[in-house]
Amino acid sequence: MTELEELVLTSGERARGVRVDSVMFGMDWTGEDYPGQLAAFVASRVRAFGAEPTDVDTNVVYHAAEADPTLRHGDFPVRQLDHLSGVLTNLGCTLAVWENGTDTYEVLVALTGERELTGLMHQNLPVRAWDSEPEETLVVLDCPNCSETLFWQLPATQTLADERCDCGAALFDATGCPLPNVTLHE
Hints:
Blueprint (H helix, E strand, L loop, with lengths): L2 H6 L2 H5 L9 E4 L8 H12 L10 H8 L8 H15 L3 E6 L5 E8 L8 E3 L2 E5 L6 E7 L6 E7 L28 E2 L1
Antiparallel strand pairs: 1-3, 2-3, 2-5, 4-5, 6-7, 6-8
């Protein structure tokens, strides 16, 4: 049994052979299939651990989003996850994400108390607390010269200093900042 299983499964679930994948919630970068789905999942996991999930909803996030003209496509799920991460801390739980290399948020709720989530793996890929820094960064852009979509998955400490497209167009300066004509996808 891995440490991850001990944190995300109840003792009864472990005894029944429940797998970590069955207590994971997936949503793509655009958000939930229907409003309240993520909050309902989180509340059900908190209840499974024997706590009453007070304030485990995202209504405050929905209301704030309605009044925010700067909200872009894909921002809302991040705001929901940020909000729920804070709520869970007060319940002795941690919102975790499985870094599977896709544009999907694979979310877990771990019963951690005062412990920090570090060094956890699932299927040989990292699981980290939502509010921690990722070990890798995904950079995506369209070349301003040839319009090819370019992807890099970098260790968090690496930059794309002086990177060029295969067509020869300069994309980043010597410090790793995108040049003025380069727009990154977020």
